[in-house]
Design a protein that fits this description.
single chain, about 160 residues, alpha+beta, 4-stranded antiparallel β-sheet, 7 strands, about 15% helix, flat
């Protein structure tokens, strides 16, 4: 009986040491795995993970992608035949000549029915009339017309 009492703790001790020992057993590699395994994990391609910080934008750029305030008294409308016409005035209230680009798109739902770009250089303190005719066609007068204006220093 005494032999059985000693064998049971010895068997449990061996079983426990086999599970937490320093080798590979049926349960796989131990916590002290080879360096190749950790190196492979740390060499994940950078393209697969999204950036964690916002990109740094240059501070010396003389372009604004949102200069809609320079476009005044604009209209964009369709005639009875569905042809669209745009008119507006670009106002340069700065002390330098500026080049404006007006992008105009007509959409019906998510579908673009037509678009155009107008580029105009306006001298300091001056204004310029801009227009585009028949740049889009829709069925009747259905649609939405949205201008977007960017500006940069004139060269």
């Amino acid at each position: 009986m005494r032999k059985r009492a000693l064998l049971l703790p010895a068997a449990l001790l061996l079983a426990a040491s086999g599970c937490s020992g320093g080798g590979s057993g049926p349960s796989g590699p131990s916590p002290s795995a080879s360096p190749a395994t950790t190196t492979a994990v740390s060499q994940t391609p950078s393209e697969s993970s999204p950036p964690t910080t916002a990109p740094v934008l240059p501070t010396d750029v003389s372009t604004s992608l949102n200069a809609i305030d320079a476009l005044q008294e604009h209209t964009c409308e369709a005639g009875a035949d569905g042809q669209w016409t745009f008119k507006g005035t670009l106002v340069n209230s700065t002390d330098k000549a500026k080049t404006y680009t007006v992008a105009i798109a007509v959409t019906v739902g998510a579908a673009v029915q037509g678009h155009t770009l107008i580029t105009e250089t306006v001298q300091a303190g001056k204004s310029a009339e801009v227009s585009a005719e028949n740049f889009a066609k829709t069925t009747g007068q259905a649609g939405t017309c949205e201008p977007v204006v960017s500006v940069e220093d004139a060269s």
